[in-house]
Amino acid sequence: MFRILRYLILISLISSGYYIFISEYFQLSEKNILEKEIVKKEILEDKKEIIQEKKDKVKSPNINKNINKAQYFEKKIKILQGDTFVSILENLNFKQKKIYKIISKIETSFDLKKIKTGEIISVFENNLGEIKKIEFFKNSETIISVDLDKEINLNIKELTRDSFVESKEYTIKESLFSDGIKNGVSSDILVKIISLFSFDLDFQRDIKVDTVVSISYEFDEIVETGKLEYNDIKYASIIIDGKQLEYFKFITDDGYVDYFNREGKNVKKSILKTPLDGARISSNFGMRKHPISGFNKMHKGVDFAAPTGTPIYAGGNGIVEYVGRNGGYGKYIRIRHNNGYKTAYAHLSNYKKGISKGVRVNQGEVIGYVGSTGNSTGPHLHYEIIYQNKHINPLKLKLPSGKILEGKELEKFKEWYKVIYADHLSMLYE
Description:
This protein has 430 residues and is an alpha+beta fold. The protein has three domains: 73-158, Nuclear Transport Factor 2, Chain: A, CATH 3.10.450.350; 161-260, Nuclear Transport Factor 2, Chain: A (Roll), CATH 3.10.450.350; 280-396, Glucose Permease (Domain IIA) (Distorted Sandwich). 30% of the residues lie in helices and 33% in strands. Helix 4 packs antiparallel against helix 5 (187-197). The longest helix is centred in the first third of the chain and has 68 residues, at 2-69.
């Protein structure tokens, strides 16, 4: 009996131990499996990150390539004598069919014959050397842009213009011009000062050391290009030996831009005797043997020999009465002035852009250029002054005084010049 009980206890212990062993074994197996799954998952996540990182590294150069592809590199081409827009496109290796399409597109808005020698055409290439855009100036205020990226598209961009007024004052030590340049005054403005005071001063004799020049002038800046364009003088003063000559810009009631002193007297005489710079008289007024026909004939003007292209100035304020070819005069302009006078200009090579019949011009404004058109033996200007339909000798003309402001116009001018002068002093000493 006792032996049987001992076997039963032994069997019970063995069974319990087996059960515990089996239970622990399966728990341990499940734990190992779970840990393996976790490790496997972590490995996969790490591997995924590594793969993604590799992919990013592979994509990175392509992104940079796309960025570089969008960058344009500008190349400037200067138009030389004999160049045409077609020849420039041919030199850039465009095919004839593409050239025709580009020219046709541009010609819808701009006459390419107007592009002049010395102007610049900008060509924009990508990093593959493909031309994607062409730009050039239509005029000082407008850029024409031809987009060649996919289709040919034309864009006309008006440039932004900012306007400024600047005042300067300096003392002459050498000359009005050279000292002006040293003091930061534009050569364009200095030429206008000389022209303005040329009725009152002989710049070779009258200008002395310690002469004080004081000026206020207008200029524009083209924002996109930084180019400066100088406009009118607003105020100018020259003090010589304590004596002051000063003039203020004023737009008269009849629409002319002119210059007056504080009393309202015009700086200008009504008609210029010599409407161009640096010329010599090649033929005087009066009877002469005509150089082409050989007959004695009345020469109704004065001839000034000058190189072709020399600018010709309007002899006085007036309205263009005639512009065009006029028989033996060749290219010809006639201006009607308010006081019964007319001036005529013959044998021109060309007219300044914008000069046409009915246009109002100011004295000293460029109207055309010296040439040799019509019956002419060489480049020169034939200049006539006509008073009440009779030709008179320009060199013996007793010039009437310029306009003198009166009444309400004078009062308006006085209010205006006080504002100009106050602004000038403010800018000088601020």
